[in-house]
Write a structure and sequence with these properties.
The protein has two domains: 259 residues, no CATH class; 91 residues, no CATH class. 25% of the residues lie in helices and 35% in strands. The protein has nine helices and 27 strands. The strands form four sheets. Strands 14, 15, 16, 17, 18, 19, 20, 21 and 22 form a nine-stranded antiparallel sheet that branches. Strands 1-6-2-3-10-11 form a six-stranded mixed sheet. A six-stranded mixed sheet has the order 5-4-24-23-27-13. A hairpin with a 2-residue loop joins strand 20 and strand 21. Helix 3 packs across helix 4 and helix 7 runs parallel beside helix 9.
Length: 362
């Protein structure tokens, strides 16, 4: 069951319904950015929930197998969440100690993670979640915010909407998770020789844009310049080389002063490929993620889809094909189109992905 509303005024009656439904233990909430819901309007309603509610504001939603650019999606959960809001503006010396204050003794099986895409310390927090919970849980979530990449209140819990924050929630209910991307290397391994935060300054000791431009132009047969960068770069992400799993995709979003700006960090000294894909390879990845999540589940009544908004920008009107692939029997498919994906079935190090599809069942 999901509840989709076009207008925030409809939310009040749904709160009463969910509060009084004994089969609902917790709620996920996903708000479409284009709805432009104000913090002053939503916060008083969120405080009326007597059950845990977490989520965020995302570029778009997936509602019952359809892409939605506006509205609010409420997903009632039959299991209890133990949530924690992390203020990313506070530089904590020891995140592990902070997590232990809230989760010591808890034997959870799954962790939901939603983070402001612009949050400071975001990568450090994700690493510390893995250091604390390790392979004892599966993980699922994504980056909230706007494609304008302007700061906004985009993380949601019972207390309201928050900026520069991350909300996590532990449950003892098993959730099956799998993820895939469908991008393949079109270059040799390249060393990131100078990088800071979300900027790559040099690759192989040359300006990052020059190296990227040379490879993309050779493969695509098109001219790449700063003023048409995004239109061509959406087909050529970066693949971060890791030891234990498939390549981690990073999304270049603009070029400036010979630097590449990416959605999530790549550290100096790491190795990358220039990647490329097409509709066929991306749809195969969607099939892989779906089959992986389903094969792990003993039984399930819900399919939850976290998909990168940049896959939508790549596929445009064909994106519905990706959603249709994820459908299984008559089980509803709901979710969010995110700016960065967080997914792990408990078999590898926890990473923030880009241009990736993640599927969960419960």
């Amino acid at each position: 069951m999901c509840i989709y509303i076009n207008n925030i005024r409809q939310l009040a009656k749904n709160i009463d319904q969910l509060n009084n439904d004994s089969s609902v233990r917790s709620v996920l909430i996903m708000v479409a950015d284009k709805s432009k819901i104000k913090k002053s309007d939503l916060n008083p309603l969120l405080k009326q929930f007597i059950k845990p509610i977490i989520g965020g504001v995302f570029p778009e939603l997936i509602v019952d197998g359809k892409r939605m650019e506006e509205g609010v999606l409420l997903l009632p959960l039959p299991f209890l969440l133990k949530p924690l809001l992390i203020d990313c503006s506070n530089q904590k010396d020891d995140y592990l100690e902070y997590l232990d204050e809230h989760f010591a003794g808890n034997t959870g099986k799954h962790l939901f993670v939603f983070t402001d895409v612009l949050a400071s310390n975001k990568t450090d927090i994700i690493e510390n979640l893995y250091n604390y919970f390790g392979l004892t849980v599966s993980y699922l979530g994504g980056g909230a915010g706007s494609l304008s990449f302007q700061p906004t209140d985009c993380i949601i819990n019972n207390q309201g909407m928050h900026q520069n924050a991350c909300v996590i929630a532990l449950t003892d209910h098993p959730v099956s998770v799998d993820a895939a991307h469908g991008w393949s290397p079109v270059s040799e391994p390249l060393k990131v020789t100078d990088a800071w935060d979300n900027q790559i300054k040099s690759i192989n000791w040359e300006p990052a844009f020059d190296i990227y431009q040379k490879i993309v132009e050779k493969h695509s047969g098109k001219i790449l310049q700063q003023d048409n960068f995004f239109d061509l770069a959406k087909s050529y992400p970066l693949g971060l080389i890791k030891l234990d799993d498939e390549l981690i995709i990073r999304d270049p979003i603009k070029a400036e002063d010979k630097k590449l700006h990416i959605v999530d960090r790549i550290n100096q000294g790491e190795y990358i490929y220039i990647m490329h894909g097409n509709m066929e390879s991306l749809l195969k990845a969607a099939t892989k993620a779906k089959e992986g999540a389903i094969s792990q589940a003993k039984e399930f009544k819900n399919i939850f889809m976290i998909d990168c908004i940049s896959r939508v920008l790549f596929m445009t009107n064909d994106f519905q094909k990706e959603i249709d692939i994820v459908k299984y029997q008559d089980i509803p498919v709901n979710g969010a189109l995110t700016i960065g994906e967080i997914a792990n079935n408990g078999s590898s190090f926890l990473e923030i992905f880009n241009k990736t599809i993640a599927i969960a069942t419960w």
